[in-house]
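Good morning,

Attaching, inline, the backbone tokens for the sequence recovery test we're adding to the shared suite. The designed sequence is right after.
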């Protein structure tokens, strides 16, 4: 918004200027919370804001003439900045002129000379009075004290300045009156009227009766600014009908209220030729026009003079680059900011005028931002698309300002905008499925595997915590078997594992970040228990109590190769640890029997005689583990006539029991389940990829 107020220049500090809260439609109690602050475009602070009342107050007494000089309008520009949300309001305060200055002549006494042969109607220019006030408070008119020979004429110059001139009404007679004393009064248009006076002394002279004449008396010249020093502005055309010294003209500047003292620093006048040249560079932005008054005076006795008025109007050229002012910047900005969010307030200024002062702003098209014009010479930088901190943690934004001059001038300003993180990314495991192996009977606390996850967010949004989920896939909660370090994801055993009881575990691991709300993901670690040789072979046939022997009878006359009996043993381990081998314990005497290494069959190795006594055999059963474990059984073989036995019908041989069948069924179901679960998880992983 843009607010406009006005205040007279003579008001005391603390005078209310305008109700800012009411005009902006903002509640007074919210001003302090929104951090309302006043930014002045001038070096001095002239105003202040009463946050309790929401009123703009005068900070110091204003002097319009000191602030704006002779400018027809006087305005002070302010900026009101409020936050949450960020807003910029422009305030223009017009300083109203009051009649606090009386007209004043440059000199309290003016001395003029006029020849006695001057014709009625001859004009004598007078010094212009100065009144710093403007408008109706400036000089309104002049008055001259009553005189028989002289009257007052007031002419209006091109810039509106009133020029008083004394006009000869009646022919003079120097012999009667040589000096005339008059009083010139300057009146302003204020209420009450103020005035200033100057004494005018007119000396009547003889001789030179033709003054220099300027043709034309008023002229206008156009000149480009920044022309080289010494550039010819114009050459005055002045004629004097007299001859000799009375027609020899000298030129000089006649100062006026148009920048007195500074005027002669910018222009130089050749007193002999009347050429006016520049003495210093001219700047359109400092002043667009100059009024020059030249006095042309002859060398007669008495000397006569004429007056030339020259108006020099400067042509603006594009000699000023735009200036970019970063009024406010909201950095960092959240990456989930909606399109249209205000990021910065930017102002631009160009001291040139017309097209040279028309400025357009632009930023790189590939940036997710755009410029929106708030009001004249003020822009808002807003988001124009989604932001993603994980793709760009910040942006170097270059704002380029280009004017419409020929050739155009440009300026640019670069600032850095940081993007703040929000928790918009869930943690991600390096792989959704992992496989680990651990030896059975390992001590509790043994490291099994380390899972690893990453989160592209930062700070607390990227701080990860690992945990194990109990999914009910095992009869006993998985947490009774394994634990995980919540910081580094290392999985440890809680107790010793038994391969013969559980061969594989599915350990669901969840990783969760510390964002709000927290995001998580899961992975499954298949932990395979590696078998160790921790079970010795068990002899299931023949089954005899510990310390006893198995008695077997055979016919006395049998051929070598005769099957005496068969040793049947099992091992709870698996793989190589369960591969069994059979052998006879070595003795001092040679035995007529042998045992098959792999099958455990005990056969006759040599023919037996009827007189042989019973034989005692010790059969050892070894597994293939490292170190190897073993079991043994003692068999006593006695040759007897009726010692014939059918092993296929023996009730002592182990038969396939329902329990063994159930164990086989359970093993098949477990293998099929593991295969199905692996296929499903593989399909899920493929779908995620």
């Amino acid at each position: 918004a843009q607010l406009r107020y006005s205040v007279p220049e003579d008001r005391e500090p603390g005078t209310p200027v305008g109700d800012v809260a009411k005009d902006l439609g903002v509640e007074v109690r919210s001003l302090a919370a929104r951090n309302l602050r006043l930014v002045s475009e001038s070096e001095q602070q002239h105003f202040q804001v009463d946050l309790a009342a929401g009123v703009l107050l005068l900070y110091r007494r204003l002097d319009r003439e000191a602030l704006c000089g002779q400018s027809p309008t006087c305005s002070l520009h302010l900026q009101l900045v409020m936050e949450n949300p960020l807003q910029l309001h422009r305030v223009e305060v017009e300083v109203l002129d009051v009649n606090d200055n009386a007209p004043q002549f440059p000199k309290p006494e003016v001395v003029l000379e006029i020849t006695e042969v001057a014709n009625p109607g001859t004009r004598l220019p007078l010094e212009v009075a100065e009144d710093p006030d403007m408008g109706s408070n400036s000089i309104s008119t002049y008055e001259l004290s009553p005189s028989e020979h002289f009257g007052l004429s007031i002419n209006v110059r091109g810039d509106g300045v009133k020029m008083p001139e004394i006009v000869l009404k009646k022919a003079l007679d120097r012999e009667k009156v040589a000096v005339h004393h008059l009083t010139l009064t300057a009146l302003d248009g204020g209420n009450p009227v103020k005035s200033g006076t100057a004494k005018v002394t007119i000396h009547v002279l003889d001789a030179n009766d033709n003054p220099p004449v300027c043709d034309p008396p008023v002229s206008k010249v156009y000149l480009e600014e920044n022309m080289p020093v010494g550039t010819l502005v114009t050459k005055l055309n002045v004629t004097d009908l007299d001859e000799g010294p009375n027609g020899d003209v000298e030129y000089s500047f006649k100062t006026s209220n148009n920048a007195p003292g500074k005027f002669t620093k910018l222009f130089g006048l050749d007193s002999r030729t009347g050429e006016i040249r520049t003495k210093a560079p001219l700047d359109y932005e400092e002043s667009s026009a100059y009024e020059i008054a030249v006095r042309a005076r002859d060398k007669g006795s008495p000397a006569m003079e004429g007056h030339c008025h020259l108006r020099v109007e400067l042509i603006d050229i594009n000699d000023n680059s735009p200036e970019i002012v970063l009024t406010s910047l909201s950095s960092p900005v959240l990456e989930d900011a909606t399109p249209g969010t205000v990021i910065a307030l930017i102002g631009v200024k160009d001291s040139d005028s017309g097209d040279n002062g028309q400025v357009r702003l632009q930023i790189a098209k590939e940036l997710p931002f755009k410029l929106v014009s708030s009001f004249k010479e003020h822009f808002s930088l807003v988001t124009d698309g989604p932001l993603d901190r994980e793709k760009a943690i910040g942006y170097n934004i270059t704002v380029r300002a280009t004017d419409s001059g020929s050739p155009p001038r440009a300026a640019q300003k670069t600032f850095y905008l940081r993007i703040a993180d929000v928790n918009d990314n869930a943690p991600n495991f390096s792989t959704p499925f992992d496989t680990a192996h651990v030896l059975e009977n390992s001590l509790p606390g043994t490291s099994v595997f380390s899972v690893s996850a990453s989160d592209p967010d930062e700070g607390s949004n990227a701080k990860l915590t690992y945990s194990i989920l109990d999914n009910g896939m095992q009869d006993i909660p998985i947490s009774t078997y394994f634990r995980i370090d919540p910081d580094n994801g290392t999985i440890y055993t809680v107790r010793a594992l038994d391969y013969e009881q559980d061969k594989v575990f599915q350990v669901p691991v969840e990783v969760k970040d510390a964002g709000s709300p927290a995001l998580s993901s899961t992975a499954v670690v298949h932990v395979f228990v590696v078998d160790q040789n921790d079970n010795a072979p068990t002899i299931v046939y023949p089954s005899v109590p510990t310390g006893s022997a198995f008695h077997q009878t055979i016919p006395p006359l049998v051929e070598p190769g005769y099957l005496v009996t068969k040793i049947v043993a099992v091992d709870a381990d698996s793989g190589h640890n369960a591969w069994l081998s059979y052998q006879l314990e070595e003795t001092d005497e040679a035995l007529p029997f042998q045992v098959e290494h792999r099958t455990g069959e005990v056969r006759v190795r040599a023919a037996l005689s009827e007189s042989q006594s019973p034989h005692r055999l010790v059969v050892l059963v070894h597994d293939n583990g490292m170190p190897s474990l073993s079991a043994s059984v003692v068999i006593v073989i006695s040759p007897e006539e009726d010692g014939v036995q059918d092993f296929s019908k023996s009730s002592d041989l182990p038969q396939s029991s329902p329990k063994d069948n159930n164990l086989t069924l359970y093993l098949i179901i477990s293998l099929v389940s593991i295969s199905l679960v692996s296929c499903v998880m593989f399909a899920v992983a493929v779908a995620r990829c």
